[in-house]
Design a protein that fits this description.
- The complex is a heterodimer.
- Chain A is mainly alpha-helical.
- Chain A has a single domain, classed as Up-down Bundle (Cytochrome C Oxidase, Chain A).
- Helices cover 68% and strands 0% of the residues of chain A.
- In chain A, helix 4 packs antiparallel against helix 7 and helix 10 packs antiparallel against helix 12.
- Chain B is α+β, with helices and mostly antiparallel strands.
- Chain B has a domain of 119 residues: Ctag/Cox11 (Pfam 04442) (Sandwich), CATH 2.60.370.10.
- Chain B contains 3 helices and 9 strands.
- In chain B, the strands form 2 sheets. A 5-stranded mixed beta sheet of chain B has the order 3-1-9-5-7. Chain B has a 4-stranded antiparallel beta sheet with strand order 2-4-8-6, with no helix packed on it.
- Chain B starts with 9 loop residues before the first helix and ends with a helix.
- At the A-B interface, helix 7, helix 8, helix 9 and helix 11 of A face helix 1, strand 5 and strand 9 of B.
Amino acid sequence: MSHATTAPHESHDHAHYPGGILRWLTTTNHKDIGTMYLLFALIMFFVGGAMILAVRVELFQPGLQLMQPELFNQLIGVHALVMIFAALMPAATGFANWQIPLMIGAPDMALPRINNLGFWLLPPAALLLTLPFVLALFGVGDGAVATGWTLYAPLSVQGGLGVDFAIFSIHILGISSILGSINVIVTIFNLRAPGMTMMKLPVFAWGWLITAFLLIATIPVLAGAVTMLLTDRHFGTHFFNAAGGGDPILFQHLFWFFGHPEVYILLLPLWGLIPHVLATFSRKPIYGYRAQVYSFIAIGLLSVIVWAHHFFTAGLPVPALLYFMYSTMSISLPLAVLFFCWIATMWKGSMSFETPMLFAQGFIVLFGIAGLTGLVLADVAADAQYHHSYFVVAHFHYALFAGGIMGVMTGVYYWLPKWTGYMIDEKLGKLHFWLTIISFNLTFMPQFFVGLAGMPRRIPDYALQFAEFNAISTVGALILGFSQLLFAYNIWKCAKGAEYGLPKAEGRAWEGGESLEWELPSPPPHHSWETPPVIK
Amino acid sequence: MTMNTPAPTPSVSHRRLIGKLLAGVAAAFAFGFALVPLYDVLCAATGFNGKTEGSPKGVGGFSLGGFGSRTAEPLSRIDRSRTVTVEFTGTVMPGLPWDMRPLTFNLDIHPGEMQLVKYLVRNTSDQPITGQAVPSVSPGQAAQHFDKIECFCFSQQTLAPGESREMPLTFIIKPEIGKDIRHVTLSYSFFSAVPDKTALNARE
């Protein structure tokens, strides 16, 4: 791809926006909003992480030392909701805001005011989710939602006021996600630079496009399910109440109709950014562009027809079990295509191992383990043993921490020079990588073993024979958690690159960077691509 | 899909696309609610979740759970070539101060045979209380062939303080039941019939 570089001059950079907090409240600039999304995600990452560290410390030994089961139940559920809805999803939206306009040659997102609203819905929603913890301290209610993030009926029908807070929080988060999705789709469809056909779209934008459509298809179903839950709780309906002719299993169907695509909603933007990183540091073009795009589409379509594999043990008829087993396993085919393309992108490239490349490669290895253990869980016969055990916990943390969070870290380290204008501190970045990947495996690898041995998840106490593995896991989790302070420090240091004497980033901060954002100076001016680039 | 010029009047072209996407959101929300009746239809057709009421035949003869054993003959004949073991169990849900147990724990019967069993239910509180039993059959494939002729779950039951009552159930397992099903469990959950939120939320 060759571009006529038409980056605007510095003189355009003096944007007329108010100073102080008002700038951030009223901004409609995609870069400002992207920054806010990413910082919000980082803060909530630490909030959700602190919750689960308390849980891990409780699980260090058998017996109850630190907390009562009620608080334990609240912490695990809110940890998951915070990490999924308030950390991973906003981080991906932050990437979309910063990068999609830069990468497709658009001056901004298509709907800047909607963009602002989408972000500012998040802090109140996060507040609603965590407020019941504080209220309980003052004797109001019995704490946050204690059902686990899945909110299964009938437990959630009977739960305390924390469930209501969670329902409203999910409504608001859902509206925010849908606004973000509409914005991404309209931007990609209408604001591409001249000459950029859909099949010249950066892979990252393709990943996000599929995510946006999945969000539009599934978030409203979750909103409907929790609305039914709300009316069951307060307005005498019987959607999930067996005594009134309803069916609690229906909730599981509705929830996972959303819940399984949600996994791909979290991962597709990251599958989109990984090829860019691999290509950059292998100094080769992305291998199999079309194959990757078609795989994204196939995974998006398959993801909405496999939901019942999350409750194989709920008592489905055998033909349904077989259908959901085979359809679930078929997802591994397009996924294998992606893995092949990632590896082939690096094949015989002149690779260098800067921090983002290390994270991308760690992502491939660990996410591969998530995929393979997922195949085991998809097996109906095996799942009867592994369902609701720590094996599942380990599996989805390999998918969502190693695949999700480490994917986000890949993107952050890759694009920080573009955003801040300074190169990252490679030494500290690599230290962060090695601390993260070693302590991550120390935390979650033992959980496969205790899960296989039969330790159930979501229980604050456990049998003595699981003690050693749990102790190892807790030590790993503490190292993993505190290592992330280094991540925050690295971001801070890069943002204040001048004070710390970091080298300035050129426009093409990484010499192998080929996509459009590297044609702009680092950091890009407040308004970029006012004259769209022409793609030939 | 190629676009060779930047959108000349963005607000106009945006609006149509946004309209379509919003319609998609509304459709997905409606689909979530449409799944409720769809799910009931599916349950009636397949015996998902052991629901025994409703039309015994699948929709248009389509039945996932019956393993092709769904002939539409009347259930006059008794299949003496085999027996099915039926187990009876029951639970009282939280918020209902009752005891219940089946008087017959299990029974070997021929498909097509009519049987009568009883549950003993006792009100342990000092107030009259109305309860509603909800049945469930497992495995789910057996549910659509489990016909209740007379059942205490067909109506609400009121027990005086301390009263014990034998509650009858008459049923047939239809001969169409799959040959590979030799064991069927019938479970009742007794709920408090008054939609009393405070009783359900007694733990709060």
